[in-house]
Amino acid sequence: MTNLPHEPEFEQAYKELVSTLENSTLFEKHPEYKKALKVASIPERIIQFRVIWEDDKGELQVNRGYRVQFNSALGPYKGGLRLHPTVNLSVLKFLGFEQIFKNALTGLNMGGGKGGADFDPKGKSDNEIRRFCCAFMSELGKHIGADIDVPGSWGGSLIRPEATGYGLVYVSIGPTNCDYVLLIISQYVQHMIQYASGGKESFSGKKVTISGSGNVAQYAALKVIELGGTVVSLSDSKGAIVATTDKGIDAEMIETIAKLKVDRKQLSSAATDFGNKVKYIDGARPWLHVGNVDVALPSATQNEVSKEEAEGLIKAGVKFIAEGSNMGCTQEAIEVFEAHRKSNKGEAIWYAPGKAANAGGVAVSGLEMAQNSARIKWTSEEVDDRLKLIMKNCFENGLQTAKTYLTPSEGEFPSLVAGSNIAGFSKVAAAMKDQGDWW
């Protein structure tokens, strides 16, 4: 639509979804869903406001705040807040659009939304951040509520900080004839490994390259180590650290990095502390510097794996890539992975999109809402058990949906990106139809 401004991030997310829907048999079986796509691509509501706050020098500062309330067919809008100088409406529309279908894949009753501001916490004092947040929420608070829009839940849930990273690597494997038995913990990626290897392999012994060094990357790395894998990289916006020994980046090093990030310092500060255990590569992402690896987990930000880097990961022997970040791979990178999947069958790289692989965070956020509504608090074990089951269902739903709407060739892995897109969209479209949103 030529009267609209160019919104590259949102347009990328929209085209990625549409391409998989149109290349499947979904619209043949449900032609009416084309109408739902047209409606669902426009947010129900966008709120934009100014945020005025005072810095430590007593000078007034102003930022732009946003909340994109995208789709409430499945329940109250749900999606977090991003504070970063690059935040704009295109970025938040892309995040909100992805959130709709990610939330649908969890099986919980949550709509999709996203918000944030072009505020940079780096270099700010705790008091400056507090004053900004108070000013931001004073305005946003007029437009949200437990039954309308829940950016986060007061009170919280145990394992909430770990949930996105843990969920990225979770999968449940257990006896199908004993539905009362709690299923055994593993990982989303390990589920991919189990399926691809016919149950012969696990995460144990796998070399894993991870980008990012925030909550998602830290907890994903810790879970990889717990499951017997070796973490060979982490990164931030300024550069990457790559392990130089067979032991990789261990839990103690990750704890050091976590403390560093709490103090809002760069990863380069830790590199010298680790001595010859790692090398620091300034201004680079890790993908082309890690040597031979088995698994890649982009866990930093959008579009952090390019076409060139996708080709490099394939040359490095990567067999499994799952996004811990939202839209972590460019469309060109996804096309490289999907082409390789189709042409190499059982020896191919297998790609899992963020809307499925990193749904653990919002899943526990939904469980958080349930606890708050019922005025109860589950133990870490109870939340963990529910998360495992949700992530198991996310994987199996995408897998089976891909088999239904894009029949794979013999020996070919089903497309998890197409299956997840179709499964999430179909659930939302059906709810919108029931509510009369697009008749």
From TrEMBL:
User: SUPFAM superfamilies under this entry?
Assistant: Aminoacid dehydrogenase-like, N-terminal domain (SSF53223), NAD(P)-binding Rossmann-fold domains (SSF51735)
Domain of life from the UniProt record? Eukaryota
InterPro entries documented for this protein = Aminoacid_DH-like_N_sf, Glu/Leu/Phe/Val/Trp_DH, Glu/Leu/Phe/Val/Trp_DH_C, Glu/Leu/Phe/Val/Trp_DH_dimer, Glu/Leu/Phe/Val_DH_AS, Glu_DH, Glu_Leu_Phe_Val_DH, NAD(P)-bd_dom_sf
Cite the SMART domains for this sequence.
ELFV_dehydrog (SM00839)
A GO molecular function for this record? glutamate dehydrogenase (NADP+) activity
Q: Which family does it belong to?
A: Belongs to the Glu/Leu/Phe/Val dehydrogenases family.
Entry protein name: Glutamate dehydrogenase
The organism encoding this protein is Exophiala sideris
Q: Which gene encodes it?
A: GDH3
